[in-house]
Amino acid sequence: MSGSDRELVDRAREGDGEAFGIIVRRYQKRIYRLAVHLLRDAAEAEDVTQDTFVRAYGALDRFDGRSEPFTWMYRIAVNLSLNAIRSRKAKRTATTPDDPRIEGLLVERRATHADPAAQSADRQMALTLCEGLDGLSETLRTTLVLVSIDGLSHADAGEVLGCPEGTVAWRVHEARRKLKTFMDDRGYAERTLLGGG
Amino acid sequence: MFPEDPKDPELCAEAEELLTHWPVGDKSPAEWEDLAARIDARIEITDVGSTPDYLLEAPLLEEQDLLRRSHPRMKRPSEGSLAALAKASLSHDAARLEAEREALARSLLSLAVKARTETRNTESRNTESRNTETRNTAEPADAALANDAVPHDNSALLAHLVNGPSMQFLAARQPSAAVHAEPSSVVALPAAVEDSAGAPTSSGTASSSTKTGRERGTMWFGIAFGLLGMAAAGVMYIASARQPALPETAAVVPARPAAAPAVDAPEGAELPASAPKPAGPVAARDVLNVEEVPLAEAAATPAPARDRTTGARRGVPGAAAGPAPAAAPEAEPPAAVPPAAGPSEPGMVMADSRGTLPDHPSTGAVQAAVGTVMGAARACVAGQSAASRATLNFGSDGRVQSVVVAGPAQATGAEPCLRSALSGARVQPFARAGYSVTLTVRP
Asked: Phi and psi dihedrals of B182, rounded to 5?
């Protein structure tokens, strides 16, 4: 698994099937996490992850190289996720305990938090955080997920969303402000957890 | 970027840590590999170039502007309209000027009361001084103001002060305050105001003689402005009186034919032209004129039958003087309008002459349109054993937007032939966004 993303894309464009497979394995987890946070459904997120790479492959002829391949794929993933959300028959409002975001979190935390009380507190806080995220608008949530959760820079997020860095910065600021208000109102203004890893 | 809060708000430490290190997922490596393998399998059967462009476009663009607009912090003072700024500035200045004027009026009031008291005392001492006062009313205002020591000059000053605009302002603004300020002014103020209304008393004459040039200019300007306003109102009234009082539905016609008022008069204009009209219908008509005429004209433009009626409405003399029976229904609501003229093509209903379109094409119009293309359509399915169905979707312009073929002709060479043949059908433009008709095409 070697080569930069651009080299792999160039090779895939020339017909190297393995090269695109390397890209898939390199980014599928992050694309899946992005889709899970946007869709809040593991099965839909998996579908979107598959579709993202298939669609990216189908658009290789239009990748002009001005952006990074991963931001290009992120853009496709965001578009597919938003399409999936908008095509749902019923709007999903409440955060359920079997939310895939929380399940993934707890699987990882079980290894570090032996104390059941800490695990329960972790779960409760994750639920609250998810509720706060879900209360944000699509725009703010998507931007916050890209920047804060996925760790994209403002420039890269701007590339994905097709907006200036300043807009991304404002959205992150606004999303965090709303999220903080939400968390503060629910008693998460200060350190409240037991343990903490 | 945000001067009042430059740093992004931070959540509590645990939430922050969770947010920035959210785990990817609970899949095992084998599951990830399985997912990648499925993607590989799909990619093998995917053609490069098969992805639609919209998936490559920037998402959420339409929400950006709304977000920025809805955020109060992003609103700068300069975003307000110039008119709003000017109004705010004027209101501020007006308030300040009003306060200054009120203070000045109060000081003048006390001065006027003092002067009147002194004058009365003088009158009681010397009755002959009144004659002198009367003679002195013709003297220039400057002389009257210059000699404060002479009693009759006090009277002139009093008249000026009491009749001046500042005093009237104060009396109009706070009559009770003026009364309470000085009991002796209770009589003085009403009398002074009465004098200023035009009674040719000695004090009124003195007042007019002491007016400065600026006040006179203001007065003449006010009179001229009032006359101009009255003239404009008169012109507007005459113009509106000449216009026939049409029902509201007729307002969509921008220019009436010459004969139309005579036709419409019995229905809409019960009042004589010279009688004042109620404000309600006139205002409603104006609103309709502004809002509906462009819509009606735009909607009517593509209609072939509208050209004729539009030509008639725009003042072609021969067409304008159309027959009365055809023009009379124009004043009725659209729902009650019968076809005003004969259809231009067989089976087609004309749009009514006011610019409103039918909601959808009539059955006869559709039958006629289909009839013109059915021969060619049947030729397409000639030789087939069973009939096929075709759904024609008409756009609001009357053209066929799409044809969906079902039955034996579907997915055969007859399908494009059918589409081509049936696409030639035309109906009149209609108001609805679309209208679908399903046909059976028999071989």
From this structure: -150, 115
Contact A190 B8 (CB under 8 A): no
Contact indicator for B260, B236 with CB cutoff of 8 Å = no
pLDDT of B93-110, one tens digit each? 566 667 667 777 777 777
- The rounded distance, in Å, linking the Cα atoms of B272 and B269 is 7
Assess if residue A190 is contained within a domain: no
Mean pLDDT of B326-336: 37
Q: Which domain-ending residue is among A87, A108, A133?
A: A87
Q: What domain range includes position A51?
A: 5-87
Q: Is A104 close to B57, i.e. CB distance below 8 A? A: no
**CB distance B32–A28 less than 8 Å?**
yes
CA angle A94/A97/A102 to nearest 5° reads 105
Give a yes or no: residue A93 inside a domain.
Answer: no
pLDDT band at A56 (very low <50, low <70, confident <90, very high): very high
ipTM (interface predicted TM): 0.84
Inside any domain, residue A118:
yes
Sheet holding B434-441, edge to edge: B400-406, B388-395, B434-441
**A107: domain CATH number?**
1.10.10.10
To the nearest whole Å, the CA of B405 is away from the closest chain A CA by 27
Of B5, B47, B71, Cβ closest to residue A58: B47
Cα-based angle B56, B62, B65 (whole degrees, multiple of 5): 130
Per-residue pLDDT tens over the stretch B244-295: 443 333 333 333 333 333 333 333 333 333 334 433 333 333 333 333 333 3
CA distance, residue A135 to nearest chain B CA (Å): 15
State the total domains in chain A: 2
